[in-house]
Amino acid sequence: MPRPRRRAAGERPVAAPEESVRGRPGEESGRPGREHAPLRRAPERPGRLLRWGLPRDPEATAHVTGFVVTTVLTVVVTRAFLQLAGFPQVGGGGLHVAHVLWGGLFLAVAVVLALSFAGPVVRPLVALTGGIGFGLFIDEVGKFLTQDNDYFYAPAPMIMYVTLVLLMVWADVLHGRRVHHRREHLAAAADHAVSGLVGGLSQRRRAVAEDLLARGRGARGWAETAALLRAIPDDEEEVLDPVDAARQRLRALLHGVVRRRWSTALTGVLLLVLLAGAPATLMVHRAQGQTAPGWVEAGVLGATALTLVVAARGWLLLPTDRYAAFRWLRGAVLVTLLLTQVALYRVEPWLASAGLLLAVAALGVTGAELRRLQRVAGAPA
């Protein structure tokens, strides 16, 4: 057996992998039954993407989420500003500078940033800039689907929403269905070392890199990467990451909700509002003297019924299997996001946007509770 290497004086220790600790049933909530998540293990055999030299970034889901959220906020702010300002036009003399052109410019800047800088520091900026550009671009989708360049084309908000949903589903298929291989964690740790070689590592970024290194233990090149990270000096100066700052604040808020055991009650309240809000939106649309397409009404009512069934299944599982229960409750929220909101955006985009915010909040609460249960089990969150 090889003897363990003695650490030199002043050398930084390397974080060890987290121990797998399973919580006892009912340990934190006082409820009987299973409280923890089933332990998920990383695959031993590298997948095809790794054999092609395409390791997935463990933070990719956060970057894609930041891109989509920025896109949604850009569309909402753009439409609100245009409506309040009376839809002004930039240009003159027969020219009209549509904001789709500004969107293309922001997208070009995002691509140039991604191609110009190595390391993980630039990716949040790419997500933010690309989200603004894509929002300005897709906001004018109605003009390019109609012969008369109709910006107010009624199905346009629904088309935007479906496009963003498909992007999130694609990201989930790529990153959320398969546990990251330890080689991918090690590659991500080495990626952080790339930026540290030239600018040092802040305490926060070093902690992220060492956590990734710990998860990549056993992969080829681990010792070399660990030695490289130890050699990188400390430097607290780093580029501001507004997406990460907003995400950390949201995580702290959701952690407070979970820690105070409000997750069950808050999830129930949000689901009840969503269930009642869908048919109420149709009633508001009719009260304004407008008629919704038949498929919209059928879709809203059918999706609402499906949401109710899935949520009821989750509620019945709460006393015996909290983890499975919250997966069903999260599924109910996803039904609302993937089906109900699509139909509502066809008739009342602003009310559908309010429902979207509530559904995203419910998704955040259920996700935070599932992560807590995963930590109890020692599984990767």
Describe the model:
The protein is an all-alpha fold and 381 residues long. It folds into three domains: 60-175, no CATH class; 179-240; 243-377, no CATH class. The chain has helices spanning 48-51, 60-85, 99-116, 123-138, 156-175, 182-199, 203-215, 222-231, 242-259, 263-287, 294-317, 322-347, 349-377. Helix 2 runs parallel beside helix 4, helix 6 packs antiparallel against helix 7 (203-215) and helix 10 (263-287) packs antiparallel against helix 13 (349-377). It starts with 47 loop residues before the first helix and ends with a helix.
Features:
disordered N terminus; 65% helix; mainly alpha; 3 domains; 0% strand; 13 helices; 381 residues
Give the arrangement of secondary structure elements:
Blueprint: H1 48-51, H2 60-85, H3 99-116, H4 123-138, H5 156-175, H6 182-199, H7 203-215, H8 222-231, H9 242-259, H10 263-287, H11 294-317, H12 322-347, H13 349-377
Helix pairs in contact: 2-4, 2-5, 3-4, 5-12, 6-7, 6-8, 7-8, 9-13, 10-11, 10-12, 10-13, 11-12, 12-13
Structural class category: mainly alpha
Uncertain parts: 1-11, 15-32
Count of strand segments = 0
- The number of domains is 3
Query: How many distinct helices?
Result: 13
General form: globular
Largest sheet: none
Summarize the helix and strand pattern as letters: HHHHHHHHHHHHH
Task: Give the strand content.
Answer: under 5%
Radius of gyration based on Cα positions: 24 Å
Q: Give the terminus-to-terminus CA distance.
A: 34 Å
Mean pLDDT: 83
